């Protein structure tokens, strides 16, 4: 029974064959490195602000800068590398990531730290965009969302282990040491991708013209999918960007307690990531609506209990589950809407949309604090932004039903 539960790939009857091929797991390793550098700053925000002599909201812009770098870099690098072997693209992106983190560790001032963060971010969107296409091409049709979720497990493990460890590492040895540790992770991830991703993967695909690839941006459902990703995911980052000051200055935890609580949040992400992939494989429309609605409800619940320690930790666990349960459905929705000719660009653009949501959330959180509403207002603002993503998802699915009804009507 244990062997049977391990599953098999592409309908193979061999019970010991892994559910996912090694290449997908290699992409998971790359995602872990990239996810660690994206999220690690949340647990170091107070230390960075103090050393760089900036306010906490200004330090929070390091998250927005990274996210905007992803938003710009994803389509540009995806189009620039679209005729290159996909393995070569993935390795080049991991090299940019590694060099960028070393530059972060060496940055002497806030401006150069921001520039290094933006450099690092350029690898992010295209890596996940190309990686999503590679992952789905290696598995059976009914495992595509799970393949995406498997790659994104790297992000959840980054939050589960990398970010809390980075916060602890930064507290003990300084925030620069945390970025040096991520640089080492980048070197290891580069080696794993080099060893396990096949050199031929995607190389036999029929070349798509630039016009065909860019034409995906004219499809209403693709644009709606990108918009629901931006707003649906932005709510998380209204809260998560300022999680350290929320926990220490409002809820009343010590700085030493932040890392264990981030670990709890990471456990939630791991659970939600797997659950979202399975739900999307069973029914994409239901998964979209259900996960976005759950995220909005959890954020409302968090607003109600944020001042009480134990309930706040429980809601942070649920926030992790609800937030990452949205990832696979949102990514698969855009891939399906784009079709085969535009899927690589659309996939990268949706990763950019996730990060535009991150930037929007970090900015909205900073504005909320600067306007004097306080840390306690952040979950309410977050719930409102996520509700916009839910409305967009309902609208998109309504358009699907309307188009299906028109197609079903006999021609007059």
UniProtKB/TrEMBL annotation:
Transmembrane parts of this sequence: 23-46, 58-77, 89-110, 122-140, 147-171, 177-201, 222-244, 256-276, 283-306, 312-332, 344-365, 377-397
GO molecular function: transmembrane transporter activity
UniProt keywords, alphabetically: Cell membrane, Membrane, Transmembrane, Transmembrane helix
InterPro entries referenced in this protein's UniProt entry, alphabetically: MFS, MFS_dom, MFS_Efflux_Transporters, MFS_trans_sf
SUPFAM superfamilies found in the cross-reference section: MFS general substrate transporter (SSF103473)
Residues in coiled coil: none
Primary localisation category: membrane
Membrane protein topology class: Multi-pass membrane protein
Compartments reported by the entry: Cell membrane
GO cellular component, one term: plasma membrane
Pfam family membership, one: MFS_1
Domain annotation Major facilitator superfamily (MFS) profile: ranges: 23-401
Stated name of the protein: MFS transporter
Organism encoding this protein: Bradyrhizobium zhanjiangense
């Amino acid at each position: 029974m244990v062997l049977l539960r391990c599953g098999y790939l592409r309908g193979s009857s061999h019970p010991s064959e892994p559910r996912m091929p090694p290449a997908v797991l290699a992409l998971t390793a790359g995602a872990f490195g990239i996810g660690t550098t994206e999220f690690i700053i949340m647990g170091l925000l107070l230390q960075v602000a103090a050393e760089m002599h900036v306010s906490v909201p200004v330090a929070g812009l390091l998250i927005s800068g990274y996210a905007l770098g992803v938003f710009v870099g994803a389509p540009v690098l995806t189009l620039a590398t679209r005729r290159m072997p996909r393995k070569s693209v993935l390795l080049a992106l991991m090299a940019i990531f590694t060099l960028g983190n070393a530059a972060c560790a060496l940055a002497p001032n806030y401006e150069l730290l921001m520039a290094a963060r933006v450099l690092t971010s350029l690898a992010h969107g295209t890596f996940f965009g190309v990686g999503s296409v590679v992952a789905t091409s290696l598995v059976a049709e009914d495992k595509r969302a799970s393949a995406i979720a498997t790659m994104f497990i790297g992000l959840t493990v980054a939050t589960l282990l990398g970010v809390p460890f980075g916060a602890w590492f930064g507290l003990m040895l300084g925030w620069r040491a945390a970025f040096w540790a991520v640089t080492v992770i980048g070197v290891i991830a580069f080696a794993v991708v080099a060893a396990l991703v096949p050199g031929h993967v995607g190389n036999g695909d029929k070349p798509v013209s630039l016009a065909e690839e860019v034409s995906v941006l004219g499809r209403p459902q693709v644009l709606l999918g990108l918009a629901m990703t931006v707003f649906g995911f932005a709510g998380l980052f209204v809260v998560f960007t300022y999680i350290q000051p929320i926990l220490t200055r409002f809820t009343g935890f010590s700085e030493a307690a932040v890392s264990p609580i981030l670990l709890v949040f990471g456990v939630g992400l791991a659970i939600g990531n797997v659950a979202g992939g399975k739900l999307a494989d069973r029914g994409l429309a239901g998964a979209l609506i259900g996960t976005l609605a759950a995220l909005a409800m959890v954020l409302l619940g968090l607003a109600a209990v944020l001042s009480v320690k134990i309930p706040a930790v429980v809601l942070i666990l649920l926030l992790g589950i609800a937030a990452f349960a949205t990832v696979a459905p949102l990514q698969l929705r855009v891939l399906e809407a784009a079709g085969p000719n535009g899927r690589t660009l659309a996939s990268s653009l949706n990763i950019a949309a996730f990060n535009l949501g991150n930037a929007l959330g970090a900015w909205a959180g900073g504005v909320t604090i600067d306007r004097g509403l306080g840390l306690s207002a952040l979950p309410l603002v977050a719930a409102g932004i996520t509700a916009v993503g839910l409305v967009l998802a309902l609208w998109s699915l309504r358009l699907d039903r309307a188009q299906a009804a028109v197609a079903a009507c006999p021609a007059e």
